[in-house]
TrEMBL record:
Taxonomy of the source species: Eukaryota, Cryptophyceae, Pyrenomonadales, Geminigeraceae, Guillardia
Domain Methyltransferase as annotated: residue spans: 41-149
Organism: Guillardia theta (strain CCMP2712)
Coiled coil location: none
The organism's place on the tree of life at top rank: Eukaryota
One Pfam family matching this protein: Methyltransf_31
InterPro entries: Methyltranfer_dom, SAM-dependent_MTases_sf
Record's protein name: Methyltransferase domain-containing protein
């Protein structure tokens, strides 16, 4: 699945936002990278830790940048996987959007895909805040997000759709506890 799939996802959505793929764990997160990153992409990984996923992404695209707030993790990532001009790493707070924009300007390339792993079991609030910031500020074509709690929540949701309201109501009924049940 490549750009055509991302384009088809965008047709079903708010045109101001990009598609977001939510993964449970690092296995799904890396599979999403293998499936959705193309050679011409310029990718930002937020929360790169020791750089393993950033390096996997880097094997598939022109340029990838991994950011993490911990200097020790970035030092490890640079030593193990750094390739100036191709796979790079910077110490940065994921929520500091002015710094992210300065880094993008310094790199001289627009990040068209963003991968976010800011602790997969973190509460949903900060995860959604981070997601919102990257959608609004970088306006990428695609975001891949690792979050157990958000993916679990999404599986509990049934979006209302007037066109298919009977199906939506049936799905909601299936999740209701039966009457008289304790």
């Amino acid at each position: 699945m490549g750009r055509t799939s991302v384009a088809s996802l965008k047709q079903r959505m708010n045109k101001e936002q990009c598609p977001v793929i939510v993964t449970w764990n690092v296995v799904e997160y890396r599979k999403a990278a293998q499936k959705h990153v193309e050679q011409t992409d310029v990718v930002l990984e937020v929360g790169c830790c020791g750089g393993t996923t950033t390096s996997i992404i880097g094997k598939q695209c022109d340029f990838t940048m991994g950011i993490d707030q911990t200097q020790a993790e970035i030092d490890i990532a640079r030593k193990r996987f750094g390739q100036p001009g191709h796979v790079e790493f910077e110490v940065m707070d994921a929520f500091d959007m002015p710094a992210v924009l300065r880094m993008q300007e310094k790199v001289g390339r627009k990040f068209n895909k963003v991968f976010i792993d800011i602790n997969g079991s973190r509460d949903i609030g900060p995860v959604c805040d981070c997601l919102d910031k990257y959608q609004k500020v970088l306006r990428p074509e695609l975001i891949v997000l690792k979050s157990i709690k958000l993916k679990n929540l999404l599986y509990q949701c049934v979006p209302w759709d007037e066109e298919h309201s009977e199906q939506t109501e049936e799905a909601a009924e299936e999740t209701k506890p039966s009457e008289g049940a304790d």
